[in-house]
Amino acid sequence: MTLPTTGRAWHLTARPDGWPTPDDFALREEPVQAPAAGQVLVRNLWMSVDPYMRGRMNDVKSYIPPFQLDRPMDGAAVGVVVASEADGFAPGDHVSHALGWREYATLEARHAQKVSADLAPLSAYLGVLGMPGLTAYAGLLDVASFKEGDAVFVSGAAGAVGSQVGQIARIKGASRVIGSAGSAEKVKLLTEEYGFDAAFNYKDGPVAEQLRAAAPDGIDVYFDNVGGDHLEAAIGALNVHGRATLCGMIAGYNDTEPAPGPKNLMLAIGKRLRLTGMLVNDHQALQPRFVEETAGWLRSGELKFHETTAEGIESAVDAFLGMLRGRNTGKMVVRLGE
Ligand code: NAP
């Protein structure tokens, strides 16, 4: 088979100040390297757009290096091996890896994980069976020390991480699961399909008031995907010895000034709250247990998931910007090929 010599890849061409615009990106033709010893060449079929990528567009020191300007961007992807110089990998194998935002990726085979389309659609390895799923699993069970009987509130509840947090809490015996999301359709999905006990649209009125009505006896665990008014409301609603997982604060990702902190943080003292930041990469040891349990819940139908699919590599930036604005239900993924 003749290998491709070029393929398209997205570059960041300017660092956004506030909300990114399509002008900050360019889709460019790049040379495709034939695999060297120990490497595979992968044709990407799916790529992920994730909130953390917004942080990588800023030139600041963080837990992950910034995207370089005028270089291919990267991120989670699933593809098919088209050429292999590595033992154990053959053309036709499906793999997940970290070189998304491009049509073809040449990488060390040890950085690729084989995935099976028999268990779930390949795109699921970017969401329910991938990094967002592990974030939900580890953030709830490990970081927040969830236990049966806890009342759990999760924000961003119709998104990839949030929808899984709420359902795992339900499956594991939460006394009450409450979610917030940004539209009436999403709120309906939470209670009617995902089995949340209560849900509200945060755009309908103050979060603190809506949370009080949804959780009259307070909450024991808060899983924060949003920050801002959600975090403040949750601190108000947490019971004594409550725990919060600080997973994301998407409400502030495009702010040009730092958002003010929660005004009621002093409540954490009297209520002896535990507020813990998390990064999913610290929880890789849970991966086998996470996959085993999640696969079981998917097979039994206890765990449901949605994906919002954008078609074609051309649509990737639009999909990323749409995800930041809430256009996704469940995981936002981009289909690059069949
Ligand atoms: P997602 O929830 O699938 O998509 C992002 C969602 O955020 C949108 O659909 C939108 O839904 C919501 N949103 C946007 N602006 C908002 C605002 N101002 N207020 C409230 N909601 C807003 O994304 P995800 O991949 O599952 O990630 C969810 C959170 O987890 C993010 O904060 C992300 O950074 C974080 N995360 C952290 C880790 C970690 O290791 N710490 C790992 C993965 C993800 P609505 O329509 O409901 O507004």
What does this structure look like?
There is one protein chain. This protein is α/β, with parallel strands linked by helices and 338 residues long. It folds into two domains: 6-127 and 306-335, Medium-chain alcohol dehydrogenases, catalytic domain (Quinone Oxidoreductase, Chain A, domain 1); 137-281, NAD(P)-binding Rossmann-like Domain (Rossmann fold, 3-Layer(aba) Sandwich), CATH 3.40.50.720. 25% of the residues lie in helices and 25% in strands. The strands form three sheets. Strands 3, 4, 5, 6, 7, 14 and 15 form a seven-stranded mixed beta sheet that branches. The structure holds NADP nicotinamide-adenine-dinucleotide phosphate (NAP). Residues 50-52, 132, 135, 156, 158-162, 181-183, 186, 202, 225-226, 247-248, 250-251, 278-280, 323-324, 326, 328, 331 line the site of NADP nicotinamide-adenine-dinucleotide phosphate (NAP). The site of NADP nicotinamide-adenine-dinucleotide phosphate has 30 residues, from helix 2, helix 3 and helix 9.
Please outline what is shown here.
This protein has 338 residues and is of the alpha/beta class.
Distance between the termini: 18 Å
Using only C-alpha atoms, the radius of gyration works out to: 20 Å
CATH architecture of the largest domain: Alpha-Beta Complex
Could you tell me which ligands this complex binds, including any ions or cofactors? NADP nicotinamide-adenine-dinucleotide phosphate
Number of individual domains: 2
Q: What fraction of the residues are assigned to beta strands by DSSP?
A: 25-35%
What's the rounded overall pLDDT mean? 97
Number of helices: 9
For this structure, the CATH topology of the largest domain is Quinone Oxidoreductase, Chain A, domain 1
In this structure, how is the largest beta sheet organized? 7 strands, mixed
Order of helices and strands: EEEHEEEEHEHEHEHEHEHEHEHE
Structural class, please?
A: alpha/beta
Query: Which regions are unreliable across 5 or more consecutive residues at pLDDT < 50?
Result: none
Supply the CATH superfamily name of the largest domain: Medium-chain alcohol dehydrogenases, catalytic domain
Look at the structure and give the CATH class of the largest domain: Alpha Beta
How many β-strand runs?
A: 15
Query: What overall form do the CA principal axes indicate?
Result: globular
Helix content: 10-25%
